[in-house]
Amino acid sequence: MRNFRDHLITQEKTIKEALIMLDVLAKDAILFVVNENDILIGALTDGDVRRGLLKGITIEDLVNIIIQTNPKFIRKGDRDITKIIEYREANFRILPVLDKHNKVVNVINFRENRSYLPVDAVIMAGGRGTRLQPLTDTIPKPLLKVGGKAIMEYNIDRLALYGIDDYWFSVKYLGEQIEEYFGNGNDKNRNIDYVWEETPLGTIGAVSKIKNFEHDYILLTNSDILTNLDYELFFLDFLEQDADFSVVTIPYKVNVPYAVLETSQREITSFKEKPSYTYYSNGGIYLIKRSVLQYIPEGSFYNATDLMEKLIAEKKKIISYPMSGYWLDIGKHEDFKKAQEDIKNIKL
Questions:
Q1: Which helix (H) or strand (E) holds 22?
Q2: Contact 145, 345 (CB under 8 A)
Q3: What is the SS3 string spanning 245-264?
Q4: Digitized pLDDT (tens) for each residue of the chain, 348 residues in all
Q5: Taking the complete model, does pTM exceed 0.85, yes or no?
Q6: How many CB atoms within 10 Å of residue 32?
Q7: 188 DSSP β-pair partners
Q8: Which of 280, 189, 276 is CA-nearest to residue 5?
Q9: CA neighbours within 13 Å on the CB side: how many for 226?
Q10: Which residues lie below 8 Å from residue 47, measured CB to CB, with a gap of 6+?
Q11: How far, in Å, CA of 165 to CA of 293, rounded?
Q12: How far apart are CA 242 and CA 29, in angstroms?
């Protein structure tokens, strides 16, 4: 993945310098012209240069005399992703991401990214992984390799595919290894911060320690899940349902090999011949409105299911998002073995 700053050029540069940069960018050849504070001024392509040269401008002139002054852009944190989808479907391939001060903070390439979701991602990576011992005696479970790649890295790359660039990793057991492995993420246009659990805080308690989320929506996921979940569809469903909390659910079908009788005071009222029942279990991936995080107690052991119970009691809207694609929770040795086989055939 290219560093987004490769697409930035300051207004004091010459057209010749711009041509050199455009040549390096090759099929991604577009530059965004900024001032000394990275505030967007315009955009520049090969076509703009050609048109300028035809008008008698030389390559020693400054770029700001031939730029497009009203380029399209994405606003970081914008809740309405309709515009992003429209840009993508209209074949706008590369767009700058601006903060509220019009500073370029990222560049999205729809050749590499599928969307740009206004979401902070929290990845829970502090567990001991006791069921995978001795594999986890010296390596934290999130860094165990599946197909030559760390389990947690699949999670992050999948989230980044949907334009999520703000991450919080909750760590405890061998967390130093995780921090060393991923760093601050800047080399991949990501912002990674670490939340250290001095004592175990459950599956969501560590979120109470985060005070500076970038967005109004939080995606929380366990670090030991392999999935090809479409996060854009997950987010759009969340918005459409006006939910406060959504949980990815995994359908399990149970086939009963006998007739099941329905009775009332011992009287048989009906029966079903060898019925099938579908139940839904917690998939460990959640979308949450930032406003409901206030219900998480400060610095206490607290699970996501505790928050769900609290929100139900508060009459908040909690919805299920049934998983239709691939999902695997790597909790046991047989799961780890299955992941090694599955990864050969499933693109995550």
A1: helix 15-25
A2: no
A3: EEEEEEEEEEECCCCEEEEE
A4: 789 999 999 999 999 999 999 999 999 999 999 999 999 999 999 999 999 999 999 999 999 999 999 999 999 988 889 999 999 999 999 999 999 999 999 999 999 999 999 999 999 999 988 999 999 999 999 999 999 999 999 999 999 999 999 999 999 999 999 999 999 999 899 999 999 999 999 999 999 999 999 999 999 999 999 999 999 999 999 999 999 999 999 998 888 888 888 888 888 888 888 888 888 999 999 999 999 999 999 989 999 999 999 999 999 999 999 999 999 999 999 999 999 999 999 888
A5: yes
A6: 25
A7: none
A8: 189
A9: 26
A10: none
A11: 21
A12: 39
**Closest by CA position to 19, among listed 73, 66, 70, 69:** 66
Contact of 117 with 232, CB cutoff 8 Å: yes
Helix axes 175-182, 151-161, angle to 10 degrees: 40
Phi first, then psi: what are they for 73, rounded to 5°?
-155, 170
DSSP output for 117-145: ---EEEEEE----GGGTTTTSSS-GGG-E
Structure tokens at 312: 């139900």
- What tokens appear for 76 in the block? 């970081």
Are 295 and 307 within 8 A, CB to CB?
yes
| Cα 283 to chain centroid, rounded | 16
Helix (H, G, I), strand (E, B) or coil at 243: coil
C-alpha torsion angle, residues 234, 238, 243, 249 (rounded to 10): -20
Give the amino acid at 39.
I
Task: Please check whether residue 186 is in contact with residue 88, taking contact to mean a CB–CB distance below 8 angstroms.
Answer: no
Token look-up 């002054």 returns 69
Residue 21, sorted as left (phi over 0), alpha (psi -120 to 50) or beta, turns out to be alpha
